[in-house]
Amino acid sequence: MKRSLLLYILGIFFLGILTVLGTNSLHEYAALSLLNDAVNESEDFRNQWLSEEVSGELDVFCGEQGISRGDLLTILMLDHRFDLTGVDLKNYGKEQYSDSLHNQWGRKPEALQTLRESYEAIWDDLVYFPVPESTVNDEATVAFDNSWMFERTFGGKRGHEGTDVMAGMNQRGYYPVISMTDGVIENIGWLTQGGYRIGIRGPHGAYYYYAHLAEFAREFPKGTQVRAGELIGYMGDTGYSEIEGTTGNFDVHLHVGIYIRTKDSPEMSVNPYWILKYLESHKLSYAF
């Protein structure tokens, strides 16, 4: 009787262990399923959502740990399922980063590398906010909201694939626009929707699009190398017309778009809002 009871207890014990191991395996499998070769085309990735707390701590953490913004965000977003609500980088050390990198997400090296390259393309070339701060005019402010995929109707209904940096002073040609990154001018000139625009390809491959300019800073042939912080034009209200030079169809603002190449898309848009929020603390000062 005692022997049967002992065997029964041992059976329950080992069954519990197997259940725990099985549950942990299921959790690991579910987590790893998040990392696939199309994760950089998901809505979670495209939203580029970043909490204000993480945004404010990003540079300090990366500097202390000796990793790039793209590397950190790759692992951090995977660890927290693209939801950084309540995440405090002060409590997220290099050991946790390294453990996740090597022992979990590193089990899918190709998919991990694809995601890392996408985050690097977007984040690792960023240097400056695209509109400098005025040193002489307190009224020359700018503001922007998260209007990602809000409805637009010119040319047919579509989602807004960018962020509009609105001018506090509705005066075309007044606010300078600078390049957020180093890069090469890939496109320049008039577009029906974008008006006068410049498209710059960053070193890691992202395409930074600046639209509705009043004018360009100078004549930029395609292929011109630009530096982060270089003046490229002035904020305006051009566009929404097939007639080049059309103005006045909306208030003065800068439309910022960011695009990356993926497996299935040569030009996939991502939300610039949190990128611009991060860059608000990285402004140049101009006398305008």
UniProtKB/TrEMBL annotation:
<dbReference type="InterPro" id="IPR011055">
    <property type="entry name" value="Dup_hybrid_motif"/>
</dbReference>
<dbReference type="Pfam" id="PF01551">
    <property type="entry name" value="Peptidase_M23"/>
</dbReference>
<protein>
    <submittedName>
        <fullName>M23 family metallopeptidase</fullName>
    </submittedName>
</protein>
<dbReference type="InterPro" id="IPR050570">
    <property type="entry name" value="Cell_wall_metabolism_enzyme"/>
</dbReference>
<dbReference type="InterPro" id="IPR016047">
    <property type="entry name" value="M23ase_b-sheet_dom"/>
</dbReference>
<feature type="domain" description="M23ase beta-sheet core">
    <location>
        <begin position="159"/>
        <end position="262"/>
    </location>
</feature>
